[in-house]
Amino acid sequence: MVKNIKLKIAYDGTGYHGWQTQPGKNTIQGTIEEAIYTVMKEMKQKINLTVSGRTDSGVHALGQIANFISDTNIPQDKIKIALNANLPNDIRILESEIVPMEFNSRFDAHDKTYMYQIYNDRVLSPFYSRYSCFVPSRLDFDKMEESLKCIIGSHDFKGFMATGSDVKTTVRTIYEAKLIYERPIIKLYITGSGFLYNMVRIIAGTLIDIGKGIKGSECMEEAIKTKDRTALGQTAVSRGLFLISVNYKKMLDM
Amino acid sequence: MVKNIKLKIAYDGTGYHGWQTQPGKNTIQGTIEEAIYTVMKEMKQKINLTVSGRTDSGVHALGQIANFISDTNIPQDKIKIALNANLPNDIRILESEIVPMEFNSRFDAHDKTYMYQIYNDRVLSPFYSRYSCFVPSRLDFDKMEESLKCIIGSHDFKGFMATGSDVKTTVRTIYEAKLIYERPIIKLYITGSGFLYNMVRIIAGTLIDIGKGIKGSECMEEAIKTKDRTALGQTAVSRGLFLISVNYKKMLDM
């Protein structure tokens, strides 16, 4: 019998060319699909992992969600164990679960939470060099915090997108955006209905520029009004970005 | 004028064959000595870094202390910056300081603190695979905690040493030993006058075996009495071990 299998996945993105399978490149999707092939040898059809959203090269995940269709007889809790036995240490299946056939990890996602990590000290700890953006200069935390308020709510975030992106609408809803200071680390947590290409990294880079005084704290509000990318700051490096969680509608909570 | 330069160093030991220089191998000492050569080209003599204590392959440090003699004219605070510019990201000089000529980072060390990290969950997070010992089975935290009490104080720790070690005395003083549970991570913090070869890893491995029920919580006490290594448990993997700090006598606090 055909089943729909949902996976909750954590990965250290350092060694990968992002999520999406690319010929001749080491990707998260490619590595997991290979493990599925190894574990479910009886499957004749091609496996295609659907994901809540692709992550870029170097981006990490604590709770990425993907799903795939399979006729495997492996019990749902054993799928996790079997896949982990065939995956490298930097990719781990945290949960495996059989879900209703109509569940789609991409289209059913209600909201996502990302975290962006800034290491703000004179010297970068060796334990954070793969997991943060290093900023040795002094940052004005209060100004950074103040500037974030205006992005809450539904807005046209056209200015907060890497140029050349092709999407139907650039309106997104941000439910929560907060900064937490755990000296010497500043963490940006942001929850939204979805994010445009590079949106979280543009917000993080702009916050850094505001903290440094290169940009004024009103520039986010201006970019929402003018939809102008140039009102904002740099796009912060990918290694500071973590996909924390993806939330779904009630359907899966039953 | 000849100066004595003290360095406080952090490193991720994953990619290194331990502290000590070995021909043809990537070591922490070798890498730092090379950076010193590059920065202090005027020095004609061979540099020899003295260290508070060597660390094994895979062991990490947050506050290793080393010192070397140099006739450099670089101001003390700039030495750190110059060295970091010539070191890989996984080794960082946190502080550089000119100290009295008689200071010796090895012989003047009064006490050291190590931390051993155990990741106790069903699945190992990709972000801890380089920095912990993974134990998926249930551990009895109370028994582990109880068993630690007996090691406080001055004892002959002959049974807590890797066989074949050559030391003058096997008596050491443990000032503090505590376990902290930050689910799913168990951290052992241990401060002592010094540690025998593999001593912290043997204590950590024995704690894991006590937690699992393979060893009784009285086995540490027994090993102190009998001086018998076989009373204790496994030697835990090096990647879970961190040298946290080294403390010196008042001399340096002036």
Could you walk me through the main structural features you see in this protein, from its secondary elements to its overall organization?
The structure is a homodimer of 254-residue chains. Chain A has 5 helices and 10 strands. Chain A is α+β, with helices and mostly antiparallel strands and 254 residues long. Chain A folds into 2 domains: 3-107, Pseudouridine synthase I, catalytic domain, N-terminal subdomain (Alpha-Beta Plaits, 2-Layer Sandwich); 110-246, Alpha-Beta Plaits (2-Layer Sandwich), CATH 3.30.70.660. In chain A, strands 1, 2, 3, 4, 5, 6, 7, 8, 9 and 10 form a 10-stranded mixed β-sheet that branches. In chain A, a hairpin with a 2-residue loop joins strand 8 (171-182) and strand 9. In chain A, helix 3 (141-148) crosses helix 4. Chain A starts with a strand and ends in a 6-residue tail after the last strand. The model of chain A has no long low-confidence stretch (mean pLDDT 94). Chain A binds chain B through residues 10-12, 60, 80, 84, 89-94, 123-127, 129, 131, and chain B through 10-12, 60, 80, 84, 89-94, 123-127, 129, 131.
